């Protein structure tokens, strides 16, 4: 009996001693919790951190559905900075698979990385952990790259511009039914499916192509004249069927001879009409499932005008296919309603914006864009002010303004010899 009492007393004393060193995680001070959250390695760790207890979750804001902006960074490390609109702050994350690489594209949660030295390609998902977060890809075919080949060159603008766009058919790039598409070189189309050893090249006769989108089981690509070509994978065949939308009227005006002219006449908010011959095309799917084409109109710098923003404005069209009347046409869109459009090296995307989001610096019925000026990647010396064409366009009043972070050039690479990839919208 005495032995049992002694054992109970010893166990009680041991428990008391252990309790002296036990800390309730929910009792950590707010400053410590916020400090720990700011030093987490990956977004995935951040999500897990918020799930520890109620107090930690209340002190750390949730990851917003609004896109983050992946900023310029030193490619020799895996540390990357993201500007988070809902917090109006920059967070740094150590992301496996990004050391030594530039980010040259984004689609459905995956960043396309180009290694600075080896020129190898890979997909990286910052929200995944372990081996599944990095997917190696075969090298692009060199024989089709022409003068814009990836090579060792001081001007890394040429290399990062070599890859124009990457899109995925779904968010699982290792699954057998996923298709990865890259627009590279002078508008070539490279297609890859997991398990294959090399990329396949699709017909480029209607190119050069400038944007791509998976839409209703088809791969759509648009060329620099705004003409769309559709590719559809044939069942049980290693081939793609091609259809050009010749019957669809172009969104471009006609020249004197009746041909599509790569020009547009744009009237600014002060009523001045300007001829725009620098037009860039994007294609995007609306939340309602409609196909939209976006025209980005840019000023001609050679005219020597005192211009604050390189981009003059945007014009939007929605594809209307009324088959019962035998008519297909592009209908001009005056408003995005409750949505905002994000354009750049990322896959073009429309995001629904709530009133709360508007208070966090992202406004509905606006277009957020970030890219390099086209003339810069040829190796010419360009005013650093025009290295990065970044801003916000309002469809309400036609104004173009600086994005909040573009006022902080030290974060986006402004004023430096630019050889990095541009900031990329990441969602």
DSSP strand content: 25-35%
Largest sheet: 5 strands, mixed
How many DSSP E strands? 27
**Arithmetic mean of pLDDT:** 74
User: Which regions are unreliable across 5 or more consecutive residues at pLDDT < 50?
Assistant: 1-6, 144-160, 374-386, 414-419
Helix and strand composition category = mainly beta
Q: Could you give the order of strands across the largest sheet?
A: 23-22-24-25-26
Relative helix content: 10-25%
| Total helical segments | 7
Report the principal-axis shape. Answer: globular
Supply Rg. Answer: 25 Å
Span between N and C termini?
67 Å
Molecular structure report:
The protein is mainly beta and 427 residues long. It is built from 7 helices and 27 strands. It has helices spanning 2-20, 30-37, 43-50, 54-59, 156-162, 355-358, 409-412, and strands at residues 68-70, 79-84, 89-94, 101-107, 110-115, 121-124, 134-137, 163-168, 180-184, 188-192, 200-201, 209-215, 218-223, 228-233, 240-244, 264-267, 273-276, 278-285, 291-298, 311-322, 327-333, 339-343, 349-352, 366-372, 388-394, 400-401, 424-426. It has a 5-stranded mixed β-sheet, with no helix packed on it. A 4-stranded antiparallel β-sheet has the order 3-2-1-27, with no helix packed on it. Strands 4-5-6-7 form a 4-stranded antiparallel β-sheet, with no helix packed on it. Strand 4 (101-107) and strand 5 form a beta hairpin.
